[in-house]
Amino acid sequence: MAPPLIQLKDIALTFGGAPLFDGVELAVSAGDRLCLIGRNGSGKSTLLKIVAGLIEPDRGSRFVQPGATIRYLPQEPDFEGFATTLAYVEAGLAPGDAHYQAAYLLEQLGLHGDEDPHNLSGGEARRAALARILAPDPDILLIDEPTNHLDLTTIEWLESDLKQRKSAIVMISHDRRFLGNLSRATAWLDRGIIRQIDRGFSQFESWRDEVLAEEERDQHKLDRKIVMEEHWLRYGVSGRRKRNVKRLAGLHELRAQRRDYRGPTGAAALAAAEADKSGKLVIEAKAINKAWDHRTIVDTFSIRINRGDRIGIVGPNGAGKTTLISLLTGAVPPDSGSIRLGTNLEIATLDQHRDSLDAKTTLSDALTGGRGDQVMVGGKPRHVIGYMKDFLFTQEQARTPLEALSGGERGRLMLARALAKPSNLLVLDEPTNDLDLETLDVLEEMLGDYDGTVILISHDRDFLDRVVTSVIAPDGNGKWIEYAGGYSDMLAQRGADLTRQAAKAATEATTAKAASNDASAKAAPSAPAPKRKLSFNDKHALETLPKTIAKLEAEIADLQKQLDDPQLYAKDRAKFDKASAAMAKAHEALHDAEQRWLELEMLREEIEGA
Question: What is the mean pLDDT of the chain?
């Protein structure tokens, strides 16, 4: 077994009088793909910070292989002191790192490098932070909720990029599909200890259920043994005093073991306060159009939504998902076309912006509106402490300011506020952000049992597959298409992955903005047209692609020699299959490289001839 790149031994940490960790052990070796799983508040992010060396534990040791490089992706990156995104990313490079990687990764992630980091949206901030940790190509990547605020296009790009890297990866994520596609081992942080298996996340939940069932059986046996010993204490004490004293001490130990037992955390009790039923027709849109700043967001879109439908809206950031929801719910009027809302409609909305509340507000006041200790749930008063417990908050957290809550706790708070309002139409914008897997399970069940209609925006592919009955996706130029089924069904019907088809939708905002900026320049006859030039990445590609092409041609020649052996198939079928697959992959890579070089060479000649 390879020596660990980083290792934690006997880690203990206490916050607020309660032990968060007690004797935690964790080892990460080269090439590991480890997902760190646990409930909100179990300490996953804190443990990752200990691994990164940002927090000192109360007890235990941390070993890092000399020379090993570590990069850590926090949930909330700090841009203080950086004027541009490029400066922020370059600051993460070490001496000897290739500086062109900073600009290259920013471009891959849809940023230009000259953005002011303090004016970035949540998705743009996450992409800049990803570029910073990926550019150095470190030995160990520690990533905390990397998919939060990312659109599906970027999530799929990130998965592909991480699969190709040699770095060991420790990841925290609520995205089941992301974890299932990348992880090869699982560390389960539960009640202060870690259990680890050499299996990916796809097998975690069945293993977890087995562990908890075995734990329940052990506790049942312990209870029965205590009852037997207590019966002996009452009726069987006699004669041999020395033996009896020892047995009595054993009973005290059993009671202490039972008293100190921390059972698994209960599940959240999510339930939406439902209003009277709406009419059968909920929303009907006919040929609606909407444009902002000369850019078409929605072009002649029509849909009929009936009571009980579960509609998912997907697409790149900037494609217009929130605008489409605003049009469908009547919050924004269309430029043309018509929207008809059904009768008796009561709408409850969950906004994706978790920072819309005052950070100094307490949890209790955020739920009650600062009016006493009662929260109105479905039009009926309920004590705020009881309602908090349904969403896995403790009584002690009632006076906690919102700034002290974790991302997952803020997510549960926003759900609690949205679900308290009586509704028969739920409009949810990114409801899964920061929620732990168990709470996601309960949210899915709640939406399945909800009698009303649901319209939601999500980038969680697994959540979409489990919840929605149809998916609306962009097709470029303001066109939106509805597909029956979940996310996977939508991909099957499109005949291509969302990444390729949505690329043009993702670039339309940039194109429209550039066109708008150019309009004033074109209006002035004397203004000279800006001179085109090759970007830094284009120049680098022109220099390196010939070497890449030569390397691929040599690889194809070697593989062809293997496949020319007429006995290879009979002698070693596995080797034949492997060589055939490698040959197909190399040919595809060679074609792409040659095509890219040809495009850049033609562009260079065009620029030089201008």
Answer: 81
